[in-house]
Amino acid sequence: MSAIRLKNADDLAHMRRAGSLLADVFRMLENEVRAGVTTLALNDRVTDYIRHTLHARPASIGQYGYPFALNASLNDEVCHGVPDADRTLRDGDILNLDITLEKDGFVTDASRMYLIGEAAPEARRLVEETRAALWAGIRAVRPGARLGDIGHAIDRHARACGYSVVREYCGHGIGRQMHEAPEVLHFGKPGTGLLLKPGMVFTIEPMINQGSAQLRHRRVGDWEIALTGDGQLSAQWEHTVAVTEQGVEVLTLHEDDRHWLA
Q1: 69-126: per-residue pLDDT in tens?
Q2: Nearest Cα to Cα of residue 80 among 250, 234, 204, 240
Q3: How far is CA 238 from the centre of its chain?
Q4: Most buried among 21, 232, 256, 258, by the most CB within 10 A?
């Protein structure tokens, strides 16, 4: 990756706007994600909404040749699930939707988990604790902290719950490009790694497994989906955050995230 690009006040204003629009996409999806809907139908709804309602760009389309506006990862799929007309959501599924949006030249990135119908208690717990692990990482962000502090906070929470953190994938800097420096690992040693400075913007996006952190992969056309090696469930939550003089700002904040700020 290239050198870290610190964002100025104007850059952050643009990213705040893009993040707000992306949060609006997830608000729209609250009434769309349900049993009987295909993951391709969700992709098409998101594509249309970003383009024609929000007048923005689905940033994933065309990135590395990818033709879709989102990744849709079900149950034991860790990440990079490909929308498919034959993948119909069923009662008890858990689903991650990972979406990027570009507005006025700036990109934001977020993902959320959805429980379809009556998910099992152990699935619900995994989803809830993965969200808590994300917020443990977010709370570690402030000027003078280090990247290792973020990863340590996430990993400590996951391990306390009996889960494992996927190590092959990480968060990343973001701005005018979807992927910028630095890489943000979801495990680490406190007090180590890059020093955080105001103006840094990056994603935090832990993938947490019920069982082993080991992965396997499956090809779907030109794309490769990551799955848990043991077939157990995986969950992921993601936000785009900015390091500020005061601490941290969550640029993709959703209305139902606000209680996590306390």
Answers
A1: 999 999 999 999 999 999 999 999 999 999 999 999 999 999 999 999 999 999 999 9
A2: 234
A3: 3
A4: 21
